[in-house]
Amino acid sequence: MAYRLTERDVLKALETSVGKLSNEAARLRLTRYGPNRLPEPTGPSLFSKLIRQFSHFLAILLWIAAGLAFLAHFLKPGEGMAALGCAIVAVVVINAIFSFAQEYKAERAAQALRSLLPPTAWVIRDGVTQQVPRQEVVPGDVLLLEEGEQVSADARLIEAVQMRVDNASLTGESHARLRQTDPETEPLIDPLNAANVVFAGTTVLSGHGRAVVYATGAQTEFGRIADLTMTTESGMSPLQQEIVRVTHVVATLSLAMGTVFFVIGLFMGLGLWVSAIFGIGIIVANVPEGLLPTVTLALAMGSQRMARRHALIKQLTSVETLGCATVICTDKTGTLTENRMRLERLYADGADLEVRNQCLLRNGRLFGMTDRDRLMPLFEAMSYCHNAKLVRRHRSQVVFSGDPTEVALLEFVQAHGATNRHRIPRMGELPFDADRKRMSTLHWKEGKLTAFVKGAPESVLGLCTRSLTDGKPVPLSDAHRAAILSRSQTLAQQAYRILAMAVRTIDSGTAHHLTPETLERDLTFLGLVALLDTPHQEVPDAIARCRRAGIRTIMVTGDHPLTALAVARQIGLAPQEAEPAPNQSIVLEGPQLDGMSDEELQQVLRPVHGALNDPIFARMAPRHKMRIVSTLKEMGEVVAVTGDGVNDAPALQKADIGIAMGISGTDVAKETADMILLDDNFATIVNAIEEGRAVYANIRKFVTYVLSSNVPEVFPYLVYGLFGLPLALTIPQVLAVDLGTDMLPAVALGAEPPHPGIMEAAPRSRTERLLNRSLLLRSYAFLGLIEAAIAMAAFFGFLLAQGWTWSISLSSSDPLYRQATTMSLAAIVLTQVANVFACRSEHLSMFRFGVGSSPLILWGIGVELTLLMLLVYAPFGNYVLGTAPLPFWMWIPLALAAPLLLLAEECRKRIGRPHVLA
Known about the structure:
alpha+beta, Calcium-transporting ATPase, cytoplasmic transduction domain A, Calcium-transporting ATPase, transmembrane domain, Rossmann fold, 48% helix, disordered C terminus
C-alpha cells in the first residue's frame, strides 16, 4: 500500500531514487513487468462473429428448410423447389450481413480504454528529463506531471505544488481533488481516496508534481476496471431468448408435422418420393422464412425512431430489451442533472437575492443598479479567488475551463458585467484543502495587498470579524454570524452548494511566507453564493412516467448523500421531508453497502407497493455499482444502468441494457454500452423505453400476422395427403406469400408508433413468452383457420364452377389447375390485407385506430396488391410460380370474402374484452 509509505520507503521498496533509474535498468524492468498497456481482450474474432450470424438456431432452421427444398428438387425436378432453396439461402445471407454490420460497431471497450491513456510520458532517467512512449513506463520511474496532462501509470506523489487531479473517469465524482505528499496514517477501504497517489487515465487539472510509478498496465486501477469490462458476460437479451424459443416451437411443430404426414403418405400408398415431397412441403410451409428479416428490420426501424428522440442504439436487440426494463439504476450528475453548476442565489448585505435569466431579484422584484453597486466587492472576490482559466473569447461569448464551481462563479460575474478589464496581479495563493475547507488568493491592489477568501461557510465565518453593510464594514455580531450560518444550512438542504466569500486588506507586509495563520484572519464577510447543478427540466415528469409504468428508478452516485437526497426530492424520486417516515427513502453509502450480506441488500432493494422507498446509493465505488446491478438481476429484475466514466464500464456490461452519456461520457462507457444518450438526459431513457415497449408489441403483431398465413399454406397439403385431392397451393406460391407479398405489411406493423397508453401498463415479466398460448390460439386456431377456409373455398369453388368433379385428376401444367391455385394464392393475399388491420391490436377495435392512421401500412398494402397483380398477370410471374391470369369477375367473390375475417375478429374482441371497446 504505497499511500501509507513515506517518500523514502516508497523509493526503497521500488529499488530506485529520483533520477537514478538508468535506461538500461528501465529496459530490464520492462522485460520483467511487461509493457505499460492493457492486455488485448480475449474474444471471438471478426470471422467467428460473422459465422455466428449464419449458425444461430433460426438460421439453422432456415438452412434445413433450404436443404429440404434442394432435396425435393433432386427427387422431383421441375416443381420450383430449387428456386425456393436459393431464395431461403438469400434470406439467411442478407440477414447475416445486416446483423453483422450492426454488431461490428459494438464491443470495442478495450480499444477505447487504451485510447484514453496518453501516448508519451515525461520521466527522469540517468538524471535527465526525457520523454518516453507510454508503454515503456516501468515501476520505479519518476513521472513529471504538469497541468492538463493525463497520468500514464499508478504512482505515489513525492512532490505536489497546488496540484489538483480529476479522478472522475475512475470514481464517478466530478470534484477536483487536491494532491499532497504526506503518507496516509490509516488504511483506506478504497485506495482511490488516497490523496498522495495519482492513477493511470486521470487528468491533472492544475499545479504540478513528481510521482514514482508503482503499478503499470493491467496492475493499475485502470487495468483492473478494464479486466472487469472484458470478463463480464452480458448474456442474451430477452428478445434473443424469445426468438430462440419461437424458433424451437416452430421447428418442433414443423418437423413433427412433416414426419407425421410423411408416414401418413406412406400408409396411404402415395409412394416414397411423393410422401417425401408431401412431408417437405409441410415443413417448408410451416417455417416462417420472413420472420428473421422482419424482426431485424423492425428492430432497425425502432432504433431509428429512438435516434430521432436522442437515443442511439448500438445493438438491435437492445431496442426491445428497454421495453421490458423494470429498474433503472441512474447516475445523478449529467443524467438527472445538467452537469453544469449555476449560481442560483446570493446572500449579501442582508439581502436574499435570486438569480433568474441573468437578473437579480429581491422578493420577486428587480434588484436596482444602485443596490448592485454595493455587491461589487463580492463580485470582485468571485472574479479573482479561483484557478479557472479563460479558454477562448469569441465576440460576446467567453468560455472558461477548470473546476465547475469556479467556472460557474466566473460565468456569473461575466454575465453581470462585473469582471474587471484590468486584472490586478496575483502575488500568492493558499490552495484549498480538506482540513481548512477554503482557498485564499493574495493580490496587489491600489498599492496594498488584498486577500480574497472563499470556502465552506462554517470555515470562513469563524475567521470574520466584520461584514459589509451598505458598502461599509461593520462589526460582525454573534447573532448575525448565527443568522448567516442558519441561512447557509437552509440552502444546503435544498441541494445548493454554498460558498462564503470574504476579503482582507493588508496595509503592510509582503507576499512571502504565506500561512493560513497570517493571512486568513480578521476577515470581512462579503456574502454567500449558492450554486446548483440543476435537474433537467423533463426529469420530474419522466420519473412520474416511470412510476406509472411500473419502472423503479434507483440513484447510484459518487456524490455526497445529502446532495443526492436533496436532488432526489427535487425530481420526485424521494418524498419530501414533511411526508411520514414509513414512506421515506433509504440513503446508503459505500461503506454501509460493504457491511451488508447479499440477503440484506436484497431486502433493501425489494420494492414496497405504494411507497417511495427505493434506496438512494451515495459515495459508490465501481464495485458497489456492479454488486447492485448483479443483485437486482438475481432478483429477476430487468436492469438498465447509466454511466459516463471508465468506472461505470463493468456495470454497463453486466446490465441487461447499458446506457452511456453521449456528451459527458468517456469513450470507454460509450463503447461498452448498448445505448448512448445523445443529450445526456434521463427523460430520453423513458422515451426509449416507450419505443422499446412499442417494438415488443409490434413484434407480437407481425408474429401473429406471419403465423396466421402459415395455416392456409399448410392446409392444402393436409387435404392433399389425407384425401388425395389436388394440391391447392404450390411450394413456390408459399414462398411468394412468405417472402413477397407479406413482407412489407409485416414491416409496417413493426413500424407502428407507440400506443398512447403503452406506458400505463406494468413491464412484462421475464417469464412472459412472446409465443404464448393466446397468440398461438389467435394465429393458428382463429385467424389462420378463417384464412384457410376462404382459400380452400376459393380453390374448390373455382374448380367446381368450371365443371371439374372430384373424380378428375389435374396435372401441374393444366391451365385450369394453374388458375385454381392462383385463386387460392389471391384469397390468402387478400385475407392477409384484412389481417393487417386485425393485427394492429390484440384487444382494441381497428376502428379505434382508423383505416388511414398508418400511412406505411397503406403503402405496404398497395405494394402487396401490386405484387399480387404481377404474380397473376405478368408472364414472368406465371412462369416462376405456375400461376395463370384470372378473369376480372373472379375478384368480386374474393373481395367480398376477405372482410369476413375482419368481422369475425371484431366480434372476438368485443366478446373477449367488451370494456376495452366501450
